[in-house]
Amino acid sequence: MLIKEYRVINNCTCNEYQVAQLYSVAEASKAETSGGEGVEVIKNEPYDDGKGGKGQYTYKIYHLSSKVPAIIRALAPSGALELYEEAWNAYPHCKTGMNHNGYMKENFKLITESMHIDESRGEVENALNLSKDLIEKRQVVIIDVANDPIEAKDYRKDEDPTLFHSEKTGRGPLKGDWIKTVTPVMTCYKLVTVEFKWFGFQTKIEAFIHDTMRSLFTKFHRQVFCWTDKWFGMTMDDIRALEDKTKLDLDEVIFMIFCFAQ
User: What residue ranges carry the coiled-coil annotation (predicted)?
Assistant: First the structure.
């Protein structure tokens, strides 16, 4: 088991980030669904009695055969590369659990627990109220969306925080030591626990998954900032309407792919 706490600093308020995150998730889901793979939204509905009180529950299936290491593709049986995600979003606290209900069952789990804190620059040492044991096990990773390197294949000029300037808010570009000076500011504290029980591969795969998570967090939050003028001013009602439309669009894409594959 490998546990890391990622701290992602953002140039927005905590209330703004709630909208920005959901908008960006919907847009990223559409971009990742093509060629018979991607995100299938099964449920997206409110709940009243979960952790943190009221919130939004989502259940998704990720079809990922082209997105995992070649070593796993070679060893996994056909149809095994689907992951199932449940999420409970009681913002500012969120929890996501991902597992494999088929081939690997209880031998794989990926749990992300997040807390979002306003006017924070990544300095809160126990944002998620962790036990002393967990604090000793975790590794803290600060993510700087402007300065951290990304893979060349993921770079887009229009998603570069060092170049983007928001017409609606006047924010950006993010230059130099922006984390210490920018306002408004908030931090996403994300505790990620990875367990991959596969003899001979556990350490390597757990490290790979964490490397992938860091890359995903960096890329996603670069998009969140550079899409400011798209989500700024949206309400939660606007977001729920967008999510409903996105689910219909994704369902249609997956259905058409299935039909043509027959």
Answer: none
